[in-house]
Amino acid sequence: MTSSSPLSHREILTAFAGILLAIMLSALDQTVVTPALTAISTDLQALDGLSWIIVAYLLTSTATTPIYGKLSDLYGRGRLMVVAIVLFVAASVLCAMSHTLVQLVFARAVQGIGGGGLIVVAQAMIADFVSPRQRGKYQAYIAAMWAFAGIAGPPVGGLLADHAGWRWIFWLNVPLGILALVLCRRAAAKLALPAWRSPKIDYAGALLLVPGVSALLIWTSEARTVPWPPTVSLALAGGLVLLAGFAVRETRAAEPLIPPRLYANRIILFTNVIAFCVSTLQFAGLVLLPVFFQIVMGMPAADSGLMVVPMLCGIPISSLASGQIMGRTGHYKPIIPCALALATVSFFLFATMKATTPLPAIIGYVALLGLGLGACFPVLMISTQNAAEAGDIGAATSSVTFSRSLGASFGTAIFWAVLLAPLSLASIGSAQTLFRYGRNGLARLPAPEQAALLSSLTAGFQHVFLVGAGIGLATLLFALFLREEPLKTSPRGNLAQPSSANA
After folding, report:
1. Residue after which a domain boundary falls, among 188, 219, 236
2. CA 253 to chain centre
3. Residues 415 and 437 in one domain
């Protein structure tokens, strides 16, 4: 094993700056491109398939998350960080130089492979040089970076598309990516390398995992279409079959991508389930609240987007608070139930909203959701890393990130299905017109349909928010049984091979 010397406080801050920059690059590329789709369509003369510019990135970044986590355990975080940044920057150049939609979608898929690695490896690197007890405040800064990406991404993308050209969205990644590499590389070089030199890569598992996850994500992105076309049903069935095969494969692989021994640890199992549910609630707020504000309350699209800013601001505030509590007390178990209680109450309050509900009250409801969700994020990541074996830090980190990604995708599909449930099949076309054109879409419909459709959709939103409250309450009760392990006071910089007993 290669030894590692402790990092100075200055080196930790320098490396963490690079980590934040890497996470910001990946997070921004999930939000900054959307406002530029019209400009891209005009420049590339492509009208159909624009959504794949977004979907391609999400598919590959999510599907490769467990692979990066495991490879970082096998080959070292520093090496994988270099690979992820180089892939991301190179793909950004390809995106900027694309002349057809097919080229751009391909480049975005490659960029997603790098972006997924930036998120997982960066968070695992923190575990290598910061102790779990002191890691909370660092995770809070990461939550703040995600919130920043959610707030700043759309306006930045719109400004660049309007005044500099959409290609600059990708060109700017090049100097920022190089800076992130320089900041991270020096500190990463001091981390210990894994002790084993001939790891067996689970290629068969990867070949089952990547298309399986991709198929399920395609299903969730198209599940709002009623009735489902045959391709959507096929994607769901194919994804489930491939992931079932992946689960069987992982029990037999010498070096599984997602080691089953992780889930034998009750803490890691519980945190992954909670992460899945919390992410479901988060994206229910991010995706459905703006639609509610537009359709039911008649807000313009820009104003409806601003209405979720209190949620995005509440997340880093409560993340910082929970991180400070963990650092001072060394305990994390009481935080999760309290945080989930806030999120659950917020969804009950959402279910009472009508077109006449005062805006200050709605802003308070939205901020309450952000405060509840934000307090969960540092706890889930840190408690998982704290419970994992040193040689499984990357896999454990990726398991939480992967669970959150799946929760976001499945949650969106589930909530859309609940929203559309009150509508009869005869009015589905009218509802889709309303979703496409917002409140102005009502004017496109016959007068008798307008009141009935709006009433059905209002009821659908109430059902959605009550389902969210039920998920929050069930997750709260589940979290009461989360076992607490004292937070360690030393970092996990020396990677060690998992014991044969755990293999």
Report:
1. 188
2. 27
3. yes
CB atoms under 10 Å from CB of 3, counted, come to 9
Q: H/E/C letters for each residue in 125-149?
A: HHHHHCCHHHCHHHHHHHHHHHHHH
CATH number at residue 359: 1.20.1250.20
Residues contacting 186, CB < 8 A, separation 6+: 11, 14, 15
Q: Residue with structure tokens 């879409």? A: 441
Q: What are phi and psi of 2, to 5 degrees?
A: -75, 130
CB atoms near residue 144 (< 10 Å) = 19
Grade residue 469 by pLDDT with cuts at 50, 70 and 90: very high
Which residue range forms the structural domain that includes residue 106? 7-188
Domain-embedded: residue 40? yes
Nearby residues of 224 by Cβ (< 8 Å), 6 or more positions away: 413, 416, 417, 420
Residues 156 and 224 in one domain: no
Residue in the block written with tokens 């100075």: 8
Domain boundary among 235, 254, 273: 254
pLDDT in tens, 187-224: 666 666 665 556 677 888 888 888 888 888 877 777 66
